[in-house]
Protein: Glucosidase 2 subunit beta
Organism: Adineta ricciae
Amino acid sequence: MMSSNYMNLVLVSTLLTIVVSGSVEHTVLRGVPAAQLSKYVSSKPFSCLDGSSTIPFEFVNDDYCDCRDGSDEPGTSACPNGRFFCENKGYVGTTIPSHFVGDSICDCCDGTDEYETKIVCNNTCFELAQKTRAEHEARRALHEAGVAKKMEIIKQSVVIKADREARLREFEQSLEKLESELKEKEELKNQAEIPENEAKEKHQKIWEEQRAVREAIAHDNQMREMFAELDTNNDSLVSIEELQKHTELDTDLENEFTAEEVRTILGADAVNFDDFNITVFDQISNSYKKLHEPIIETPVDVNDVVASTEAYLKQNDEQGQEQHHEEEISEEQEDEHDFDQHETPSPVATSLEHEKHIHDDTVPEYDDETKRLIQTADHARNEYHDVERRVHDVKREIEDLKRQSDVDTGVHGEYSAFIDQCYDYEEREYTYRVCMFKDAKQIPKGGGGEVIVGYWDSWVGPTTNKYLKMKYSNGATCWNGPARSLTVTFRCGIEHKVVDVREPTRCEYAMIFETPSACDETIASGTQHHGHEEF
Ligand SMILES: *[C@@H]1O[C@H](CO)[C@@H](O)[C@H](O)[C@H]1NC(C)=O
Ligand SMILES: *[C@@H]1O[C@H](CO)[C@@H](O)[C@H](O)[C@H]1NC(C)=O
Ligand SMILES: *[C@@H]1O[C@H](CO)[C@@H](O)[C@H](O)[C@H]1NC(C)=O
Ligand SMILES: [Ca+2]
Ligand SMILES: [Ca+2]
């Protein structure tokens, strides 16, 4: 609060100024823009411009703030919210905060803000006007050159667009053809696969049967041999005493192989061949060892195996027939086998080959007919897959073309040169790469994983021209933070290039990109209204 004494003092000093100065009127109107001069009439009381109060005219520019809006002190720094107008003849009139008035710093180019101080301000308005004009001209020239390039891009985009549409139609037509071709090929493939699968299944079945037979024979041979070995007294029975010698069959290691334990295995005091086959053999075959006999590998006579396999099959066929003696069978079948060799080989005759597989599960080679069917089916499959691949390729082409035509490349396609283009910006630690309408990445220069800064989102420029900014969002999330994003701001330039990348707020990147596509026809023609027409 001001004391009334001080107020009086100020009043007196103002009156003195008015009395002393010959050009009082001019002085008190300092800082008033021409448009508002009519509101400052020296013969009338002054109404504050906000209407808050009315004061004697002497209170205007008396260096004491009377109006709440500061309108009584346009030419002094008395009001904290006062506005001072500098006319700046030859340049542009501007309004400055009135506390810049008389602060010994030249703020107006015409120096009027320092009228009461000892500072002599040089009038720089002419120079400024020249400089500003030069800048505007440079800017205009840049936009003019840029617009020329932009026109080329737009012209090119029309050609590209027409070409794209033509190609799209072509691809769509060929896709139609390919798809019906694919159907035919699929039909052929399926037809070829039916006999192929039948033959393969048949082959597999035969082989499995043969394998089962071989295993049965091996089982029987082993069993017979074991029985003969065990039956040391040749009475066609295996007794407890005979089996008891095989202590390796003792399952508990605590005591001896007792008669009782042996009886449990045999299920009787002695077993004949058939009972041995049915109840004993499987129990002991895994642990059984020959007694005191050096192990001699006797090569298997192929003919024997073949013969016995055939015999076995025959025996199985002739159900109920009396069981032959092993040696009888071998002899009997020997001749038949020899005979067979000169005729079409029976499936079993080829078991010569299969014998090798008796202990592994590899399916033997297919017969020629099956091979032929597989070959035919393979051919049909290859043809089908060829067409399938072509369908896939054409579909991808179509997708690509559609994706390209769906991109919003500006009102006139001025951003069409950006399609499928990437631009790098080298910084100390990182390379920033923006792939237009796709994504933006931060690639560490010292190696290490690149980080997605954002995926193409949308144009986000101001409503007057949304094509001045684009946004890439939903990038990799920051540690303990939000997903990264990037805003690209376009400005007129002769070449397409990134000129700056920053991270003004954490995880929100800002890129400045120069491109002819952002150049402006109105600026280029110099007809843009920029408020400087008066000089
Ligand atoms: C005015 O210009 C002169 C010479 O051009 C310079 O020496 C002087 O410092 C300037 N005055 C101000 C206030 O800038
Ligand atoms: C049992 O027969 C085999 C040959 O068949 C013979 O080597 C063995 O000595 C005979 N053993 C007895 C106890 O007769
Ligand atoms: C052993 O028993 C099986 C049935 O469990 C039978 O098929 C096979 O022919 C028998 N072997 C001999 C050699 O009797
Ligand atoms: Ca005042
Ligand atoms: Ca000043």
Residues 59, 62, 64-66, 72-73 surround calcium ion (ligand 4) (CB under 6 Å). Residues 160 and 416 are 9 Å apart (CA to CA).
